[in-house]
Amino acid sequence: MSREAIGxxxxxxxxxxxxxxxLAGKSGxxxxxxxxxxxxxxxxxxxxxxxxxxQDRGAPIRRESIEMMLSALEKAGVSFLSNGREARxxxxxxxxxxxxxxxxxxxxxx
Length: 110
What we know:
Distance between the termini: 36 Å
Order of helices and strands: HHHHHEEH
Helix content: 55-70%
Strand content: 5-15%
Number of strands: 2
Radius of gyration: 17 Å
Number of helices: 6
Strand order of the largest sheet: 1-2
Shape: elongated
């Protein structure tokens, strides 16, 4: 999983004001898996073991876990788009959030 894709997962979670535990609970993956994916610990662990000549016996991050996390975010209104060269994210705004955004626009003068 690329740095950009991990960034989009984090951005989607943050846009919904979800903690890592919230995403874990809503997606059905463990909070440890969410933390490993977001921190890229899996890649670092594999590289370190490889350099040390140690056989990797750890649990890999499964594609299914990532798909479950993406599905939970999408159900909550986050959309992920890709055209092959770049990836983007958008978030559907709930009706109660419109007032917040109207105030924010006034504060920043737009």
